[in-house]
């Protein structure tokens, strides 16, 4: 089932698998991203626990690039992407693991380009 709110940029969607085994997945979409809630089963000590899983994406313009935040089950990934005709730069930070990575590409001519990247674990 999909419900469109008064503004066309906003949508609420409820979906479930058949046969239904729990609560439906609820997704709220808005112009800058979306947030989803879903029931999830997790086994612990031979007992099944029903948990509520939260995930979401938020995107927006920042300086001359696009900044993205992606949250999924207690993990947050922050990414910035800058791209123009000659260069692209993509740093990424994952929390709580503190993993930092980046990639870059520089074009000098039609056939000449330089690219590279790196991964690191940041201790804070």
TrEMBL record:
GO molecular function: monoatomic ion channel activity
One GO BP annotation of this record: monoatomic cation transport
Superkingdom of the source species: Eukaryota
InterPro entries with a match to the protein in the record: OEP37-like
One annotated Gene Ontology cellular component of this protein: chloroplast outer membrane
Protein name: Outer envelope pore protein 37 chloroplastic-like
The organism of origin for this protein: Trifolium medium
């Amino acid at each position: 089932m999909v419900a469109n709110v008064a503004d066309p940029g906003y949508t609420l969607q409820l979906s479930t698998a058949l046969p239904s085994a729990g609560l439906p997945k609820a997704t709220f979409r808005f112009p800058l991203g979306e947030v989803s809630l879903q029931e999830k089963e997790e086994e612990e000590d031979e007992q099944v626990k029903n948990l509520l899983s939260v995930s979401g994406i938020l995107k927006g313009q920042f300086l001359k690039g696009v900044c993205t935040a992606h949250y999924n089950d207690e993990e947050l990934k922050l990414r910035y992407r800058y791209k123009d005709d000659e260069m692209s730069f993509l740093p990424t930070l994952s929390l709580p693991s503190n993993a930092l990575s980046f990639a870059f590409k520089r074009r000098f001519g039609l056939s000449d380009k330089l690219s590279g990247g790196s991964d690191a674990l940041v201790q804070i």
